[in-house]
Amino acid sequence: MSPLPLRLSPGDDLRAAVVAALAASGERAGFVLQGIGSLSVAQLRYAGVPQPAELRGDLEILTLAGSVSPDGAHLHMSVSDAQGRVLGGHVGPGCIVRTTAELLLALLPGQRFTREHDPQTGYPELKIG
């Protein structure tokens, strides 16, 4: 395992930046071990709900973790709002960094992750190869 710390800047799309970092590394498999920071927009898909909910405002990233492959990421995150309320779920595209996001990506040399449609779940699921 090879660590790759990342710092994202205001306006960055969190999910897109994670996938781009893996691509730039030349590796084909990774995990986000943890992330903290802030967002101005969060797109979170809750369990059993097909579309993400859009949260806007000053949001703190409390946790962030998931798998990353060249064809996408499967990330989960919890955020808190300015009143301390916490929400969490599956990270969708369009989570926009407010001030910073600090992440630790673990690259897995010699491994290859892909995401393939699973007819049982209806979602693109991790394939380790």
From TrEMBL:
The keyword Secreted does not apply. Residues 1-129 form the PPC domain. GO terms for molecular function: DNA binding. It comes from the Bacteria. Keywords: DNA-binding. Pfam families: PCC. SUPFAM superfamilies: AF0104/ALDC/Ptd012-like. This is DNA-binding protein. It comes from Duganella aceris. The lineage of its organism: Bacteria, Pseudomonadati, Pseudomonadota, Betaproteobacteria, Burkholderiales.
